[in-house]
Amino acid sequence: IMDPYVPPEGDARLTSLSRDGLKQQMQKLRQTAASQLAYGEFGEKGGICGGGREKFVVGEKRKGICGKRGGICVFNKQKLHSLVTERCYPDMVRGNRYRTIRWGFVESLEPPRVVHVRCESVLSRGNLYGQVTVRMHSRQTLAIYDRFGRLMYGGEEIPKDVLEYVVFERYLVNPYGTWRMHGKIIPEWAPPKDPIIKTVMIPGPAPDPSQERE
Question: What is the pTM of this model?
Answer without folding.
Answer: 0.70
